[in-house]
């Protein structure tokens, strides 16, 4: 590891240290009852039942693509403890800017999540993935995909833990139901968002993959748009059957499958060469 990468690693760790306190320190300082603590453990166990298979799936994909576990671990750690608090800061900054243009409080509240999260979160999650790749000296597209998956997965885990803990400690309704709700939208969420966007950015700027630049643009734009619609009032419905969810899920998963097929294809090409 050269001097520049060592400096980058140090900065990465500083940012992660801030994130550890931001994400977990506040939770540890809460004055909660023993019953609430027990409920939190149960509710997090519900999340774990979903997250553990997801983690092992990412690990299996990494093995199939011949990507070292250190790529997965480094990007996952950064996604959990770097991209989260940076996204929070980014969302807050965009909120301040938007408040100068959107004066109607009802319109502002309805659209604030759609106008902040898709842009700040996708930027910082992908940036974290690329930072991990730079520190580790990885430039191959297989590592890019795994870093994107891992960064998004780390972000998703910490975000879901945050939502579930706030509901559990707030006592408004069952944290277990919140956990189930997070799982319901978890299959097509941050893990796949970041994987697709990270590979898309890589395709846009890599000189070795100029022929895929249009597809890279599609990956970035379609995913940000998907996240935007998910957070917008368009997503809301009074009916139990939500057609919008079906389309968003299908578009994201289908795009990820195409990304994965492209990475597999390029891996085989590299081996033949």
Automatic annotation (TrEMBL):
Alphabetically ordered keywords of this record: Membrane, Transmembrane, Transmembrane helix
Alphabetized GO MF terms: peptidase activity
Coiled-coil annotated spans: none
Membrane-spanning ranges: 7-28, 40-58, 70-94, 183-205, 212-229, 241-263
Protein name: PrsW family intramembrane metalloprotease
Record organism: Streptococcus sanguinis (strain SK36)
């Amino acid at each position: 590891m050269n001097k520049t990468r060592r400096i980058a690693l140090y900065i990465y760790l500083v940012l992660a240290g801030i994130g550890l306190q931001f994400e977990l320190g506040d939770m540890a300082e809460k004055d909660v009852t023993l019953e609430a603590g027990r409920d939190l453990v149960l509710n997090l166990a519900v999340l774990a039942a979903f997250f553990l298979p997801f983690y092992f799936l990412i690990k299996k994909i990494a093995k199939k693509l011949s990507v070292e576990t250190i790529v997965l671990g480094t990007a996952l750690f950064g996604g959990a403890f770097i991209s989260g608090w940076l996204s929070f800061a980014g969302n807050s900054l965009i909120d301040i800017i938007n408040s100068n243009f959107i004066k109607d409080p009802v319109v502002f509240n309805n659209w604030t999540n759609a106008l902040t999260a898709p842009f700040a979160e996708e930027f910082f999650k992908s940036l974290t993935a690329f930072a991990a790749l730079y520190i580790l000296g990885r430039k191959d597209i297989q590592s890019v995909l795994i870093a994107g998956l891992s960064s998004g997965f780390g972000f998703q885990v910490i975000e879901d833990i945050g939502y579930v803990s706030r509901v559990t400690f707030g006592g408004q309704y069952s944290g277990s139901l919140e956990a189930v709700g997070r799982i319901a939208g978890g299959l097509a969420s941050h893990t796949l968002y970041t994987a697709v966007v990270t590979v898309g950015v890589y395709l846009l700027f890599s000189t070795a993959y100029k022929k895929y630049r249009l597809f890279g643009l599609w990956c970035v734009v379609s995913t940000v748009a998907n996240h935007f619609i998910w957070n917008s009032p368009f997503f809301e419905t009074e009916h139990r059957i939500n057609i919008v969810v079906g389309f968003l899920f299908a578009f994201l998963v289908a795009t990820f499958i195409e990304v994965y097929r492209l990475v597999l294809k390029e891996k085989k090409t590299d081996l033949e060469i």
